[in-house]
Amino acid sequence: MRKYFALLLAFVAFTISSCSIGKRLDNTAWIYVDTSGFSDSYSTSSDKYLDESAGDIYLSEFLDELKSSLSAYNIEVISAGTTHQDNSSIYYIEIKRLEFVEDYETESVYMDSADYEPTTFNVVSCEVSAKSILYMLDKGGHKVHVKDYNKTVGKDEKLSNNRTFWQIIFGANKDNSQYTYKELGEDVFIDLSRKAARQTSAGISRQLNKIQ
Fold first, then answer.
1. Rounded Cα–Cα distance for residues 178 and 154 (Å)
2. Range scoring the smallest mean pLDDT among 21-35, 142-156, 160-174, 196-210
3. Contacts within 8 Å (CB) and 24+ apart, 203-206
4. Where are the chain's structural domains?
5. Higher model confidence: residue 178 or residue 210?
6. Which residue has the higher pLDDT, 111 or 167?
7. How many other CB atoms are there within 10 angstroms of residue 55's CB atom?
8. How many C-beta atoms surround the C-beta of residue 39 within 10 A?
C-alpha cells in the first residue's frame, strides 16, 4: 500500500512540476505582449504581505519575468508595428488579469511541552493567479485564438513540529513536542508574480512547440 501511495505522490509531483517546465523552440518565434485590457484584483483577510498600492510593481515584475523567460525558450518579444527578418508566424499574448489573495488560518499550539497555555498564530497563505490568452496572427493580421492560460501559484507560512536541521544536529525535539513558526519574505507577492510569469511562459513554449 505504501508503495502505491509513494508512486501516486511521485506522479502528482511530476504532473505539477511539468506545468513549470517549458521547451525551447528549434526555430525562433515572435510574440507581442498586450496589456491594454489588463486588470487586477485583491482579496485579503490579512494585510501582512499584500500591498494593494503596489499593483504597478507586481505587473512590471510579472512582465519582466515573462519576457525574460520567453526569450530563454527562443520566443522573442516584439513591439507593435515592428517586423522581423523571416516569414515565421507571429503570436500575440493578452495579459488579462492578475489576482492577488492573502488569507489566514488561526491555529493554537503548545510551542513547548512545558507550556501551560497555547500560543495562537494567524498562519498566512498567499496566492497569485495570472490569466492570459494566446493568439496566432493570420496573414491578414487578425487574431486566431490558440489557448487560454490560468496559472495559480502560492506560498504559505509554516507552523510545524517537524524537527529542524539544527534540532537534528543537536538531538533536540525528538518527541516532536516543540513547534517552529516560519514567516514568508516581505516580497512574497513579487516572487509569486514572477513565478506565475515563468509558468505562463513555459505553457506558451510547450504550445508553440506543438504548432511548429
1. 26
2. 160-174
3. 203/19, 203/22, 203/147, 203/149, 203/151, 204/22, 204/31, 204/70, 204/73, 204/75, 204/91, 204/93, 204/134, 204/149, 205/22, 205/23, 205/24, 205/25, 205/70, 205/73, 205/75, 206/22, 206/23
4. 33-78+95-130+150-211
5. 210
6. 111
7. 16
8. 12
